[in-house]
Amino acid sequence: MDKPSRLFVVLSLITILGCGHENANTNTQDQQSRPNILFILADQWRAQATGYNGDPNLVGKTHNLDRMAAQGVIFRNAISVTPVCTPYRAALMTGQYPTTTGMIFNDLHLPESAVTMAELYQDAGYHTGYIGKWHLDGMGRFAYTPPERRQGFEYWKALECSHQYNDMIYYEGTNDQPQKREGYSPYEETEDAIAYIKQQAATDEPFLMVLAWGTPHFPHDSAPEELKKEFPKNVGLVLQAYMRRTYKDLENLMDLHTEEAPLNYRLCKGIYVEPKEIAYKKYEEVNEHFIEDIEFCFKNGVYPGIATHDKPVVEGAYRLIEKYNVPKDKYEFQMLYGVTPALRQSILEDGHRMRVYVPYGKKWFGYSTRRLKENPKMASMIMKAIFVKG
Known about the structure:
Layout: H1 3-6, E1 37-43, H2 63-71, H3 85-94, H4 98-101, H5 117-123, E2 127-133, E3 155-159, E4 169-172, E5 179-180, H6 185-201, E6 207-216, H7 225-230, E7 237-240, H8 246-252, E8 264-268, H9 283-300, E9 303-307, H10 311-323, E10 332-336, H11 341-349, E11 354-357, H12 364-374, H13 377-387
Parallel strand pairs: 1-6, 2-3, 2-6, 7-8, 8-9, 9-10, 10-11
Antiparallel strand pairs: 3-4, 4-5
Helix pairs in contact: 8-9, 9-10
């Protein structure tokens, strides 16, 4: 089995979360009748991005997933009340709303008093294991999570949070010193899960294993070369100007840029709370690097979607457009509907392309409130747009 295929091993339905904790020991099933459970959690993988759902980029390429879809159960309507990393993981582990657990945004600590799926399975006689991204301890993204804060998971090869897929550290067992993965972390994590399954298969003890990849969460340029070369014409990336690595990412991706399949990016500031070691914090500093990223695109024939409501960034882009004599079909500006309408109108009147982002459909309100939770600063921008002209 080749490495990309090994990423798609099996995905099982977890049913024990519906049981009450006090009843977990009442299971009288024979040991042999209890199924092993492997739950694979991917970060920011959309349901439609699968061959069996008709994604034209993947039809005929995900044979294992397609076979599982044909033989198994597909949830056509699945809802996460807060589809952000820590809140969702807490809901998955406990079966409770984030407002109940208090896990309403990223980097919070799930209390040891919480009743989790691992504890329920342990009580039912299962061995439990966790591999990959945890993001439920809240004590630092690169910090060691001791056994008493692992919410019932015994086998452990995990890290709180990192998206450095080719430079990934993790902690194993009770060793509080970080270990380093040698290659692309999702591949190695999958190999670890396979080894764990084989090891457990030699025992009479059923298991619950959670394999939690950090991918396909950004950065996408860290993907193996064979994957980047397979999809150059079909993918436009979002790059965040406040990340210290972004300019280097732009440089590293240029080997995929051709006249036949030119790269295109959506350049935005970035909304997630990241540590100062990996992200710029000052307003002027972020804008300065935003403009540097735009200039890189113009100099190298890359199509940028300039997603900003900040006049200094727009003015900086104007200067670069004039400096490099960039045709108006080689870039666009992007804004949220209802935010800085006067600036948006002035950009249109100057003859530039503008893409306006409008939530629509029956679930527009829920989607919009989720975005506000992700980026509370957006609320002040919207209020300003409502009450202040321009």
